[in-house]
Amino acid sequence: MGSFIDIDDVLSDSEREKNTKIPVELSLKTGFPKAHFSDIIETSLLVVDLLNKKEKNTTVIVFPEKKILGPIFTLAKFFHEIIIEKSKKDYSLNSFKKGDKVSFNNSICKFLEIDGEMVKLEFKGGVISSISINEVTRFQKVKKDKELTRYMSPTNSQSQEKKDHRTVFVEELNNYKTHINNSVICLSKLGKMTDYFSNVSIEDNQVKNILLLSKADYKGNLTNLFDSKLDGVPSIILCTETSSITSLINNQHPISSIVIDSNIKNIEDNLVDFNKLANFNIPVIYLSDFSEYPDLISCLGEDRVNYLIWNSKNLSELIKRNYSLEGTFSNKINNYIKREIEYLSVECNELSKSFFILGRNSNIHTEFNQEISECYSGLYYICFLLSKRITPLGYDLKTKINQKIDALKKTLQSNAQYILKECLEDFYEVMRLLLKIISNDFFNQKIQKIQECIKNNSQSEIYLVLDKKIEVQNAQNYWNSWCKENNLLNNIHVISYSEYVSTEINEGLTILAFLGKESVMRKILYSFNTKKYTVVLYDFEKKWNDTRVKRWNHIFKEHNIHQEPSQSILSTSSQTEHKHFKQTDNIEKEDCSDEYDSLESNLFHSIYSKYDSPKNKEETIDVIPVSFAGGGLSLFPLRHKILLVTNLILESSNSNATQCLTKELSVGDFIAIASRDSKDSSVDLIKQYADKDPEIICARNLAQKWKEAIKISDFFEKNPKKMIDKIVKAGCTKNRQTIRNWLEADCICPQDIEDLKCIAKATGDFVLKEKIEEIFNAGKLVIKAHQEAGRELSEQLQKQINYELKKQNIDPINFWEPIQINISNCDVKIFKIIDIGTIIKAEKKDVNKLVFEW
Known about the structure:
- There is one protein chain.
- By secondary structure, the chain is α/β, with parallel strands linked by helices.
- It is built from 36 helices and 31 strands.
- Helix 17 (370-388) crosses helix 26 and helix 29 packs across helix 36.
- 37% of the residues are buried.
């Protein structure tokens, strides 16, 4: 069975006093302030050692903060393995064989032999040198395909400078560089890790120059990150997927331990692969924080896993023992220990009733036609939009909502015969309530409550966190003006929740004025950016949130995380909320439903359903609806390849755009979509590219014979509908819209020869009948040429996008709408994915288009 570990129960005083302190100081860059590894990390490593002596080798460590923890913890883990002698150097001059390539004083040479007290080496040009063994500090292994270089001897000043700036431990690390007996594996984002290791120094020496660092592909093949010439067992191997780790194990690469620094979404999506890691006799450490912890338990379960949780009691003990809490952890820990959360609720009966009515009609998109479904999603969206507002509604927005409600009302009236009377009355009632909210007489109690919080707060810095649907700058302008009008000196920072959780904030008050998905709320409340949090919700929002709070408290209380009264997530100023807190003892583990998450998912689903189950069944395709920041929506086929630029934007300049299938996309990804001035210009460009081959020009002329046959038909000139009727009558089984597309669109040739025979029969064209197979094959050849031209143009564009995006300074947090970049007369738009729907069937005409919902 798994265990929930209390650090003080595992770590005795004698264990604490063991000499496992890592004797180096880190700095992010040369010249920056130095600091030892935090004692939280070093104590965690000690506890993991003790737990690994038992039967379970998988440990989850829950920290208050883990955002930048992955690379720091991995480096500390490697140093710790050396100190406890789990990782050892395997270096001896006698281990080198004749012909081995080695690095010596920045030169690449060939090891020949040891002759008494001398070592014979061969350099570039066949130059043989004999060097005294006493002068040979160390050889590093070099890959066999590297060419020999001339001998280079360091100057005395360079040697002395290096010696003066290195501690004994750092100097000793060089002996491990290509001669260590095992590696520490870290699964994380490659850009995050490489950026850290590119900059971090120990004792003014860059880590990338001291350690051999590599990355592994899915087959377990290794590539050095910084020094391509070196060979041997790397100190640290970076992986981006579990298949890389499994391949390394299957390839029998020596591994000392595995550190998992991955988000919960990746673990959930690849849970089978992650669970397999527990079957190997290698210690696995998952790094987690309080926002992901409940989901991680659901994923990994409690069997075979140790959960090491840094609760406020353990952290307070570290402080009492005068342990070092320097670095990024210190502020987070203090905020965690002293955290206070207050929940305030306000009334809005109009919104509450609207959500209730829409909630009881949630199945309407499956029972009625698309127009009625569109009415439902339109009303739902307005309700959600109004529930997130923390500024007065302006004239433009009121007008827009009014116009939208009028349009929805007309749609309902025209479809009244198809909808139940009760549903119709419900829709009209929601419209009446929404019109009341946008009237000039309506008073927004949530705004008033936020104003009271600001007035009654002594904190100079106040962070007002917004939902993604609210425009930040407008809200910032409003609250700046309000503070100025009321002679308040508070600095109000209006900030989106995604920016808030990724920003280093040390002190102040956080006001959360909206209810979001459970994962979003946890990320904000457990970011520990400030000591004080105030959550202002409508009464119906608070009802939804109370269920979450009870569930969180149940998990945290069961696992002994929150032990002080100040840790209660419920307000201590309300008897009602005290009552809820006492009821947490009665909540069942299985009670994990979330009403709000269901409602928000239902909103997206109601929008997507407009495109689902189209009337034209024959021309449908399985698609996945994808929504973008800024309101855009696209329907992508499952096997459609999309240009993914997430790594380029989020990670490092070493990353490149990659192609992935629609089903491989995740919320938060960034994609690039190219669009010419028009569809015709894209087709023309592909045509020009394909027509570089004279054979394709000839084939194109022949393939167009079927269209010429139609053009000379008397029926087509007078009435296209009659031409379609004749083709159907000739035996064509395709639907009329498909045939219309052949006639009107830039179609090279129908893809079924039987359809071509029907056209020949309908037109009576002799040439078409005689050469039908020749024409059909020519059409296939042109289509294939177009596909290859499109692929080559796409590859060229991908390289140009890589180049252009590396020059752009795109902020992934403040990303509210698509960004457009012009590349070679082609407009490329960068989109951020905010939601991905389930598979639906849609008409082909709606696929791969960007549409905007109101």
